[in-house]
Amino acid sequence: MSAEAPRPPLPTWLILPTLVTAIGWGSWALLTKTELPRPLAASLPLLACALLIWALEYRFPAQRSWNRRPDRTDLVLLVVNRLLDAALLATMVAAAALATARFGLELPWPTRWPVALQVAAGIVIAEVIRYALHRASHRPGLLWSVHRTHHEPRRMYVLNGPRLHPANYLWVAGAHGVTTLALGADLDVVLVIVNVTALFVIFQHANLDLRFDGLNRVFATPDVHRLHHARDMPSRGVNYSVVLVVIDRLFGTYAPPRPVPADGIGLSDVPSR
Predict the structure, then answer these.
(1) The pTM is what?
(2) For a tag site, which of 97, 201, 235, 244 has the least CB within 10 Å?
């Protein structure tokens, strides 16, 4: 019997909380305290975090064989979906402004709350919507035919998360962007929500073996989300959440972390349900 692999160092537990704090604070600071164009101010913190996560994959890999050059399809979809995100947000900002001006609507977003609470509220609202759509997309039919693009890779790494068919990306981005803007959230708040969510999308798919004690019972950490991509059929019916795996716990689709072999990632023939 082979010796049990050593646990990751305890300080690695701090990596996820540090990244979440950094992307939230950094995004808000660049958006509100600088003259940078909003697309650039929103993109820089996310790019910095993605590069750091990519470097961490080589220092703390879950599977060393997953560390190789990015797939071309992943790079193309990353660019296409980022542009789609910008276009969607611009459209919603214009639509919300028009509706407010023409109909005098008083939108219900709690704009007087501290920014951190507004971001937390936006993430919770969006997570419930995303969970329902993600779970539905694993049933046979049109949604699965679009979503299966995300499950094609045979490995987990930093660019697996953004690997979404553009139609799939529309409903993922719509959950946090369209919903919060329609409710009256300020664009800068929405962009912070978008960035925190995007960080989790990247992080939960990363090839990382870190300490997640306790975190993986609340948040969608890599060791939890890896089961969602495991090739055996039952595992693809678990851990649908993007940020808050506590939603899976509430609806009975949570599975605790377990090892997934290097060749155990990818598609089965049909969705689990």
Answers:
(1) 0.91
(2) 97
